Amino acid sequence: MTKDNVYPMHNSPRCTAHSKRTGKPCKSPAVRGWSVCRMHGARGGSKSGINANAYKHGGRTQEAEQLRKLANEMGRSLSALINDGSI
Ligand SMILES: [Zn+2]
Predict the structure, then answer these.
(1) CA 11–ligand 1 middle distance (angstroms)
(2) Residues 28, 15: contact at Cβ < 8 Å?
(3) Are residues 57 and 41 in the same domain?
(4) What pLDDT does 79 receive?
(5) Which residues contact 27 (CB under 8 A, 6 or more apart)?
């Protein structure tokens, strides 16, 4: 047994991140179900929807973007039908 493996927790999976200054691996224990530790982004993420800090007016939410995409698609297909002379 080496000094690094004194307790079973020392055998847990390690973080795969590397330091941007030294290039050496992080060595912290990885969060269960993740390949990185708590300092390197496990369980992270930003709030979405109306709770996001960048939320201003709702015009850029996923729902609004999908609706806009659908409306543009319908407009394009309608103008294609008009240009074909079908309508
Ligand atoms: Zn880490």
Answers:
(1) 15
(2) yes
(3) no
(4) 96
(5) 14, 15
Please tell me the pTM assigned to this model.
0.50
Query: 32 and 18 in one domain?
Result: yes
Q: Separation of 74 CA from ligand 1 center, angstroms?
A: 47
Q: Is the pLDDT higher at 17 or at 8?
A: 17
Distance 48 CA to ligand 1 centre (A): 25
**Is 48 within 8 Å of 64 (Cβ atoms)?**
no
Q: How far is the CA of 51 from the centre of ligand 1 (A)?
A: 28
CA of residue 86 to ligand 1 center, whole Å: 61
Provide the number of structural domains found in the chain.
2
pLDDT of residue 39: 94
pLDDT at 75: 97
